[in-house]
Design a protein that fits this description.
Layout: E1 7-12, E2 17-22, H1 25-30, H2 34-45, E3 59-63, E4 77-82, E5 89-94, H3 98-104, E6 109-113, E7 120-125, E8 128-133, H4 142-153, E9 158-161, H5 164-167, E10 175-177, E11 181-183, H6 188-194, E12 197-203, H7 214-230, H8 232-240, H9 245-251, H10 266-271, H11 274-281, E13 282-286, E14 296-301, E15 308-312, H12 316-321, H13 331-344, H14 348-359
Parallel strand pairs: 1-6, 7-12
Antiparallel strand pairs: 1-2, 3-4, 3-6, 4-5, 7-8, 9-10, 9-12, 10-11, 13-14, 14-15
Amino acid sequence: MKGNTGKVINVDMTSGNSHVETLPEEYYTQYIGGSGLAAKLFWERGRFDIDPLAPEAMLIFMNGPFAGLKISGASRNSVAGCSPLTGHWGDSSCGGYFAPELRYAGYDGLIITGKASKPSYLLIHDGVTQTLDATEFWGKDTGEVTQALKRKYGKDYRTLVIGPAAENLVKYTIILNDGHHATGRAGFGAVMGSKNLKAIVIKASARDMDIADKAAYEAFRKDLNKKIIEALPATVLHEDGTAANLTGGVFAGDVPVKNWTSNLWEEAADALAGSALTEAYLTKRSACAFCGIACKRIVEVKEGPFAVAEGPGPEYETIVSFGTLIGSIDLAATCKAGSVCNALGMDTISAGGTIAWAME
């Protein structure tokens, strides 16, 4: 099937060995998308009768058919398996640049099992997968490790990194892509931590994809991107990010307040609005691979008790979880909480929810 490569990398962290597997073509027609393919693979090979943090547990990274194509919104990568948070099926996803790089390297996915005897990371480069020593990175936060790996290999190498919380098997931990994009839900950071896998680093020299009809694709791509970028939701997302949804949510009674004991707090509509974040702390906008929307926020809180160095800004979920849900409308505090969670590698939704519960 054109677009996909038909190949996945299987890595056994216990032995450090890897091999490339060709998947049956019918998988790609019957189970479309990264989550669909991951679900099929887990159904065949995964297990719910073991601890999700056991060495035998599978961790699956999988692309959809559009990954690597120059289409807005098509750069997401699915991460799936048995969630340590629920003990059931879980899948999460993130944008950024990892998914296209995996596709350019010649693979649709990555399946990881086993547990390394010491902290390790994977290096995937032009058809070669290596398991390398990550002892020097263990215990360090996601930002430190991301920057260190990019200094070591180059800024164009793409990274997936876990933080100290995942090393300690906190069950709502994230995997952070290039320091900006999080697979936030289901706790798969802890699964990486349980395998002594600190990071995955990938780089491909090639940029070509096998497209059945390149002329038709180019026409489709240009038309679709134009429609996406000109649509009102894209304009709003570009201007104020996902936090633009907050104001309407407040007036619709759709925003949780004080651990869900209320859904009413009119002051939050202005204090935590996407426009407030833009005006007070935005330094620039950022985009995932090939996306013309650029909904990501880069923010800086220059002074005060919640000062934050320039870095990824909070999305809607973080603003709610560390805002109205815990009874706060201090936007600087929300930015700080999101930054701390990113560094430690924690899901802001579950972290904020846990704190809100404890406060009540």
